Amino acid sequence: MTMAFSSLTPVFVAIICVLIGIIVKGRKTNSKNEPRKTSKKAESRPWVDDDLKDSTDLHPEEEDDGEWQESEDIAHTPFSLERYSEEDMIKRSKNFYELLNKRRSVRFISDEPVPREVIDNVIKTAGTSPSGAHTEPWTFVVVKDIEIKHKIREIIEEEEEINYKKRMGDRWVNDLKRLRTNWIKEYLDTAPYLILIFKQVHGMLPDGKKKTHYYNEISVSIACGILLAALQNVGLVTVTTTPLNCGPRLRVLLGRPTNEKLLMLLPVGYPSKDATVPDLTRKPLDDIMVVV
Amino acid sequence: MTMAFSSLTPVFVAIICVLIGIIVKGRKTNSKNEPRKTSKKAESRPWVDDDLKDSTDLHPEEEDDGEWQESEDIAHTPFSLERYSEEDMIKRSKNFYELLNKRRSVRFISDEPVPREVIDNVIKTAGTSPSGAHTEPWTFVVVKDIEIKHKIREIIEEEEEINYKKRMGDRWVNDLKRLRTNWIKEYLDTAPYLILIFKQVHGMLPDGKKKTHYYNEISVSIACGILLAALQNVGLVTVTTTPLNCGPRLRVLLGRPTNEKLLMLLPVGYPSKDATVPDLTRKPLDDIMVVV
């Protein structure tokens, strides 16, 4: 009995060593995970869909002061802006509202050609958007090639069909109406231009290190808002789409680098003769504005 | 010797049991963390700063088809839009670019009053923005009350001072230049209007359940882009700010519900006589546009 144990002793010791080893290893991985779960990094991760898995962390503790401007020591120059009379301001604000209030998301787009110079100008306009620390983290890929447009349509319809059919299961019972929609997106062929908007989730510094692009998704979304206004201003239509799970395949198709992630796709052209839109209304001012 | 070991045996066994216990526990917590790290929820969590911790998850598998329109069975109506000649389109696109290219982020704002009707119109214009599934998930809080503006300034400067001083430590060595910036934001007192833009991270259904607001942050950011264009169009200036860690206190100060999270704060007014802006340039078209 005693003999047996004493002979087993080295085994016990071995077991203990192994177990301690396992624990220490476990501790290490934990301590690696904890901060990811609790640190600002994790909380400040921008929204990402399946396409956008790689790190676009913000680092609030390295964040600029919340104003979207380089805080570096850059020379300042005097600024002035054309000043309108109050009467003119009211008239201009009313006219601009009436122009943009006619904007609708249109998915019936004519194949009539659109002057390329207009596309250049609306994208230059989007490029005037502010951005976190003036990083200008956007790339506008304008697709006019018929075959590439069709490849884009194939990728999106393939993914949308999967999304759609997966959804049907979930919604079958309580939302039969949704079944009337489908994943066919003819406008991806007919629209003379597809504008794919990529956000640059980080930049590159001369020393090859990653340059953080603060608020890159918000910045690029703001630029898209300005782009939508510019399109409406010239009488072109589009529909704001965020193709689900298509980002990586479209990025590869268009040869964009890995630091660029698809944020939006806008088919652009004239509305087709038989274009229709859902009979939706917008919230009145009192429902969206509070004055204190 | 042998005696010693045999008497220690129970101790070995005890130790082994404890160690095994610890390992099993460790395993449990790991397996609890794994899914959180890899699930869609975690990946699809919108960007949140310290203010915005509560759930604004997207569920791509429940996502609509990527087009920002109700897929419900809504009646469709014919759509048409004013058609401009190609010459007019080019001219309009050029003029709009030149107007918006004069926009700069300005933090020297005059206390001259601005017609309230203009503010109403620019916010109505922002409200024409598209939104995921037409949820219109935005609330624009317009602050003109002098005392509330000052309270907002106190909250922001208090937080910014902390952010700033925390930052100084990190950057002391390699970025002395940044020290020239500070956390004083006089424009929060002087601007006749502060527009605080809240995103509604979810809505409420009649049955009291949460209504998912797909892409609420992107939607509200697009609306901000349109708002910036509307402000520039009437000769008003602002600076795009995302006050770090101030959201909850500002939300409470303004009495907004918990489903609303501060996304942006825009001080709005005329530029002050001595306003200056950093001498920054914008990327040329070739650096932001790719045509295929």
Automatic annotation (TrEMBL), chains A, B:
Listed GO CC annotations: cytoplasmic vesicle membrane; nucleoplasm; plasma membrane
Family statement drawn from the similarity comment of this UniProt entry: Belongs to the nitroreductase family.
Substrates-to-products reaction catalysed: iodide + L-tyrosine + NADP(+) = 3-iodo-L-tyrosine + NADPH; bromide + L-tyrosine + NADP(+) = 3-bromo-L-tyrosine + NADPH; L-tyrosine + chloride + NADP(+) = 3-chloro-L-tyrosine + NADPH; 3-iodo-L-tyrosine + iodide + NADP(+) = 3,5-diiodo-L-tyrosine + NADPH + H(+)
Stored InterPro entries: Nitroreductase, Nitroreductase-like, Nitroreductase/BluB
Reported cofactor(s): FMN
Keyword Lipid metabolism assigned: no
Gene Ontology MF terms in the entry: FMN binding; iodotyrosine deiodinase activity; oxidoreductase activity
UniProt feature coiled coil, ranges: none
E.C. no: 1.21.1.1
GO biological process: thyroid hormone metabolic process; tyrosine metabolic process
Biased composition (Acidic residues): 60-72
Record-linked Pfam families: Nitroreductase (PF00881)
Statement: the UniProt record of this protein carries the keyword Transmembrane: yes
Keywords in alphabetical order: Flavoprotein, FMN, Membrane, Oxidoreductase, Transmembrane, Transmembrane helix
Official protein name in the record: iodotyrosine deiodinase
Region (Disordered): 30-72
Transmembrane segments annotated in the record for this chain: 6-24
Upper taxonomic lineage: Eukaryota, Metazoa, Chordata, Craniata, Vertebrata
Stretches with biased composition (Basic and acidic residues): 31-59
SUPFAM superfamilies in UniProt: FMN-dependent nitroreductase-like
Domain Nitroreductase intervals: 101-270
